[in-house]
Write a structure and sequence with these properties.
It is a single chain. This protein has a 5-stranded antiparallel sheet. A 3-stranded mixed sheet has the order 1-3-2, with helices on one face. The chain is an alpha+beta fold and about 250 residues long. It has 2 domains: about 100 residues, no CATH class; about 130 residues, no CATH class. A hairpin with a 2-residue loop joins strand 6 and strand 7.
Amino acid sequence: MNAADRRIENITQYNRLMHLRQAAREMRDTFGMHGDFSKQASYGRQYSIPTQYYRRLEDDFGNDTAYSVITTYGKICQGINFIRRQLREYEKAGVLDDAEKKSVSLACIALETTFPSMRWSVVPSKQLSFEYKNSYYGDNTVSVRITWDRKVKQKNIEVVKAGDGFRFIMDANEVELRRLNEEGIRAYKVQSLKVKHKQGEIEEGWVLAYDYVDKIISAFHAELGRAESLINRRIKDTIEKILLDVS
């Protein structure tokens, strides 16, 4: 279901919900179903109603009407609950669709910008993968999870430079390392795409990131200790360059 169809369905279901709620209110007012009486009647089962409530309903309207009121009110309440669940599911589906589209489009931009000599396609998947194009006209295809935007792009680590070139970060999980955190360095265990000579391979490693003024200083390496050495050197070089420019 596309976004336009989902909006139409939401409106239709919302209107149904309003009508059912109005019907439930009118029944409660007409037959005096309030508090525990209304709660128990919402199950639509005659024998779930406390005896004193059901007898009052029988005395006022007769046995057949009392039974019909309880079953009808129960069906209305079931309809209300069903539509509420549907609306929650539609809302969730809409959020997931938006996250998927955003992750795919932004990941593709990052790949095309970083490796412009190659053609790229990005697809959503639970499994990360890289597929090399098998013809001149094909695209290199990368699969990322729909959480890529939140876990990678929004952390400003979508592309990180290693000692031997750039890495496209396919997925990242932040790891709390107190020693690094105390120095203002964020640490991520990542899966990345290494591209060399128009070939690609997925490799695991570490990304360390440091927020300095208005830029992100980052580093990638397969080993945490080597990544730490690399980012410390880059932080030092950045600060020295800024100081030289000021002077």
